[in-house]
Amino acid sequence: MKRIAVVLILVILFSTLVILTKLESMIRLERKIGESIYAFSEMTLFNVIHWVGMLASTGGIVAILFISMIFFIIRGKKFIAAVMLFTSVLVGNILNKLVKAIIARDRPSFTGHLEEGYSFPSGHVMVGVILYGLIAYYLIQSNITVLKKKWTILFTCILLFLIGFSRLLEGEHYFTDVIGGYLAGGTLLVVLISIDHFIHSRFIIGKEKTIQYKA
User: Rounded distance, CA 184 to CA 189, Å?
Assistant: First the structure.
């Protein structure tokens, strides 16, 4: 029930953001925020953030996806986790392109260059939240210490924040595009975690209980 409530809240927030985006009620503020952040993009200090943002690019996502799939299969024999990770990226990409096509919001133009495709929601952020959030979830579910679980959550939160900030720093998205990516990615992440819980409780744990009963 808690996960359903979280999904509903995220959907409501995302829907509200879509309406505000379509009405362009915050476009002036967004342009000011975007221009202010983009002004720092050439500073050496922020080059690190650019590289962190690459972890959510197409190449970065594909590389991390297959590395994590191999890790979970070999290290923990978690084949379901590998399948869920692959499915999450596939579904996330499809939904992101679908929503972008529906909203059809142009990219920011204040940077002097235009990235191809639509802007809302940020694909880097949305798919990044789904993939890295799901990886963190499976790591937390494994047999690691409480301290390591806390560090996993902290590291994932910082990583996702930097990915979102990098999209603003590079002038590729408006502020609401990034927020929309977090909300859309978060919604799908909770749904995927719920599906994983259902699979394990209904099939894996149930099967183990059946085997124990027969023994």
Answer: 9
pTM of the full predicted structure?
0.87
Query: Any idea which residue has 């124990």 for tokens?
Result: 212
Distance of CA 69 to the CA centre of its chain: 17
Quick: pLDDT tens for 102-123. Answer: 998 888 876 555 567 788 999 9
Give me the pLDDT at residue 189, please. Answer: 95
Nearest to 30 by CA among 178, 215, 202: 178
Contact 37, 58 (CB under 8 A): no
C-alpha–C-alpha distance, residues 165 and 159, integer Å = 10
Closest CA to 27 of 113, 163, 120: 120
DSSP classification of residue 142: S
Instruction: Determine the Cα–Cα distance for residues 13 and 69; give it in Å rounded to an integer.
Output: 32
d(CA 134, CA 86): 11
Question: 190 near 6, Cβ under 8 Å?
Answer: yes
Q: How far apart (Å, rounded) are the C-alpha atoms in residues 117 and 97?
A: 9
Q: What is the DSSP string of 147-189?
A: HHHHHHHHHHHHHHHHHHHHHHHTT-S-HHHHHHHHHHHHHHH
Phi-psi region of 98 (alpha: psi -120 to 50; beta: other; left: phi over 0): alpha
